[in-house]
């Protein structure tokens, strides 16, 4: 009887160990499902979860482990709420990585208050503040979007090429807005341009006529709106149009979305802008996959979200572990050369190569190349607005 009991105990222990080894690995998807970028969150989440489904369906991750997404609301603007959501993911849900957040301020708060203290890998698809490049991260933080230090240069080049040498500038009063405004102003003035006025605006107001009055008094050939399309940025544009203060605008990444066309239609014809994007083969393939899955893969930061999730899972495979303290050291390896290039829809192939001891160069949906502190080198699509619709006119 004693031998039987010992054998039974061993069997139970072995069964528990097997079950634990093959339990789903949970990965957080924390985005602003409410707040000033809520119109972008659904397609961003869809992108990340498409990559997760692709990996799970392959049955190749860590000898058959599934990935289970866990959603959380960053709100985009409330650092305390974002931190609470991320803490719940880690302590209650047991996530092994975080895809997100979206906006720079809440991303930094999650990094400092949750990811670093708990040793969790965090890859943001859209946080662009230059300040995140030097944040204390213990090698845990990466982003598939470029820093706004790069975007500021892109903005300056586009405006100068359009013959625009004088601009008024308004920005949302947070880490993202201030960082982008400073980067742009520095690049534009170095190129010989003039920023007649640089003024912050606060999100959530019903009336922006006073802000637009000050911007108008400053003058300028065009109004640069470094804001959020679902919040104060659109409020500024509406007040400018209604008052006749400006009728042409430059829109950085936080303003470019379907909501911009829906809100203003032909009223913003002749305006221009840019947001992260590429015309690479991977981008086209991803858009086809997204269409098949029932969502619009051309929406901003959706492709970056697919890539962020893919890098988390491929790094796990390269490390042979879902422990973030182990796989964090493989993110840069799988993202960059040398190795076989991997496009969207080829995650099973990538997992097999890594399992066999080979190397991959994850190109993904956005021509991923991580530089410096683990951030995208930066590709941008340039757009104009014609007949009430966004038109892509080039890539940089």
What would you say this structure looks like, in words?
The chain is an alpha/beta fold and 396 residues long. The chain has two domains: 25-146 and 280-375, 3-Layer(aba) Sandwich (Rossmann fold), CATH 3.40.50; 149-278 and 379-395, 3-Layer(aba) Sandwich (Rossmann fold), CATH 3.40.50. The protein is built from 14 helices and 16 strands. It has a seven-stranded mixed beta sheet, sandwiched between helices. It is globular. Residues 1-20 have low confidence and may be disordered.
Give the topology, please:
Layout: H1 2-21, E1 25-31, H2 41-58, E2 67-73, H3 79-93, E3 97-100, H4 104-118, E4 121-124, E5 141-146, H5 148-161, E6 166-172, H6 175-190, E7 194-201, H7 209-218, E8 222-226, H8 232-243, E9 249-251, H9 258-264, E10 272-276, H10 281-293, H11 302-319, H12 324-327, H13 331-335, E11 340-342, H14 347-355, E12 360-362, E13 370-371, E14 375-376, E15 380-386, E16 389-395
Parallel strand pairs: 1-2, 1-3, 3-4, 4-5, 5-14, 6-7, 6-8, 8-9, 9-10, 11-12
Antiparallel strand pairs: 10-15, 13-14, 15-16
Mean pLDDT level: 94
Spatial strand order of the main sheet? 2-1-3-4-5-14-13
Q: Under CATH, the topology of the largest domain is which?
A: Rossmann fold
Strand count, sense and closure of the main sheet?
7 strands, mixed
Number of helical segments with 4 or more residues: 14
Topology as H/E string? HEHEHEHEEHEHEHEHEHEHHHHEHEEEEE
Q: Give the domain tally.
A: 2
Query: Judging from the principal axes of the Cα atoms, what is the shape?
Result: globular
What is the CATH architecture descriptor of the largest domain? 3-Layer(aba) Sandwich
pLDDT < 50 stretches? 1-20
State the share of residues found in helices, binned by percent. Answer: 40-55%
